[in-house]
Specification:
Elements (H helix, E strand, L loop, with lengths): L8 H13 L16 H13 L3 E5 L2 H11 L7 E5 L5 H9 L2 E5 L9 H7 L4 E4 L11 H11 L2 E5 L7 E2 L2 E2 L6 E5 L12 E5 L2 H10 L27 H11 L2 H20 L5 E2 L12 E5 L3 H13 L5 E2 L13 H4 L9 H6 L9 H9 E5 L6 H16 L3
Parallel strand pairs: 2-3, 2-4, 4-5, 5-8
Antiparallel strand pairs: 1-9, 6-7, 8-9, 10-11, 11-13, 12-13
Helix pairs in contact: 1-8, 2-8, 3-4, 3-7, 9-14, 10-14
The protein binds pyridoxal-5'-phosphate.
């Protein structure tokens, strides 16, 4: 990751098909398009590659979550359980649905802690939303068992783990629905875009309608279509879909490069006894978009961060003070700085968010270092980098 590093002829060819016929919209204009349906083709590729019955493209990963929550019937008065380490899109999409986000601890998988999920369930809980952060997966068997026991829906946010799998099934294709982002920094990019995967045919029909103003998409005269439900416009354009179509055809190549680069760096760091790695519920299914490791204390991790900088190493983060990925810096959320009035249910549900503590997550996130695995590195560059990283870590022990 990210896919833009290897943007090239495959993507340009798909884009040129669209530029040549000028139909930039995914619906209608059948006569003008010379048989080019890039969004439809990309949805078909997703269905084939992920082994699901339905894929719905959207304008972003965030709007894919909006659509997923809508088709699951999530709205006013409901609660959705999400991790405190994620991207802001998690609570944005839940708030947009009218439901209340309920934040819980992560465990050493860096994703939802199943015990914390179970403890947070109330009669209002409708959905559990694991976020497969930094390339690898949540403990999906444990979360599915909790959902089955309490009659809840499982929504996988697989935006950061495209191409990963769990016990032979693709991430994003396991829960009642799953989502991807194809924004500019993800493993496969459209520039901007997202997708919802599901095997539920009602969800698929509703997602198709809801993401396009409620259009029924029956016949070939848009103006004459009816609108069975209320919707919005979360459509992707043909231009964006064309880029994604070029990229997804290179998916196996991209994941292969990530796995090679990841293995080289992990092997080098494994020789240092003070370094430990995140728990990966199915190691074979790691998409390897990132390598995450822990130091024994936060102080050690800070020293490693300094040593990486002084050794000229780039592309790594510690998320403890990060504005976008960890609850500590989400003041706009804790203070509910909404442009418009929020419901009493949301205000009440989030009134103590400022005071809730996440000691287990604080400990894990403060000791964690997350390294991006790039696609453009040559094997030789990765070997040099791995050696430099190991040397930098050893210099502070
Ligand atoms: C990128 C991302 C999203 C949102 O995707 P956009 O396409 O940027 O809206 C959602 N969740 C996670 C975990 C992400 O990393």
């Amino acid at each position: 990751m990210p896919g833009f590093e290897l943007f090239g002829d495959a993507e340009r060819k798909e884009l040129n098909d669209v530029l040549e016929n000028g139909v930039l919209m995914r619906y209608g204009f059948d006569g003008m398009r010379n048989g080019h349906w890039k969004a439809k083709e990309l949805e078909q590729e997703l269905q084939n590659r992920f082994g699901v019955n339905h894929a719905q493209l959207t304008s972003s990963g965030t709007t894919a979550l909006n659509v997923a929550l809508a088709v699951m019937g999530v709205g006013a008065g409901d609660e959705v359980i999400m991790p405190c380490f994620t991207f802001v899109a998690s609570f944005e999409s839940i708030l947009a649905s009218g439901a209340t986000p309920v934040l819980v601890e992560i465990d050493d998988t860096l994703t939802l802690d199943p015990a914390a999920v179970e403890a947070a369930i109330t009669p209002k809980t409708k959905v559990v939303m694991p976020v497969h952060m930094c390339g690898s997966m949540a403990d999906l068997d444990a979360l599915q068992a909790i959902c089955d026991k309490h009659d809840l829906l499982l929504l996988e946010d697989a935006c950061q783990a495209f191409g990963g799998s769990y016990k032979g099934k693709m991430l994003g294709a396991i829960g009642d629905a799953g989502t991807f982002s194809f924004d500019f920094v993800k493993t496969i990019t459209c520039g901007e875009g997202g997708a919802l995967l599901t095997n539920n045919s009602d969800y698929a029909t509703w997602a198709d309608q809801y993401s396009d103003h409620g259009h029924d998409h029956i016949g070939n005269d848009r103006g004459a279509e009816t609108h069975p439900i209320l919707g919005y416009n979360f459509r992707i354009s043909e231009l964006h879909a064309a880029v994604g179509l070029g990229q997804i055809k290179r998916m196996d190549e991209f994941i292969g490069i990530q796995r090679r680069n990841h293995a080289i760096i992990k092997a080098a760091l494994s020789e240092i006894p003070e370094v430990s790695f995140r728990r990966i519920p199915d190691p074979e299914g790691d998409s390897c978009g990132f390598l995450n490791f822990f130091m024994p204390t936060a102080e050690f991790s800070n020293r490693v961060l300094e040593a990486f900088a002084s050794h000229g190493i780039d592309a790594y983060w510690n998320y403890f003070n990060n504005n976008w990925h960890y609850i500590r810096k989400w003041d706009h959320f804790k203070e509910l700085k909404s442009l418009f009035p929020l419901s009493d249910h949301i205000k009440k549900g989030l009134s103590n968010l400022k005071d809730i503590e996440f000691p287990q997550s604080d400990d894990l996130i403060s000791r964690n270092i997350s390294c991006l695995i790039k696609l453009s590195w040559t094997e030789e560059e990765v070997r040099e980098r791995a050696e430099k990283m190991a040397k930098a870590i050893k210099s502070v022990l």
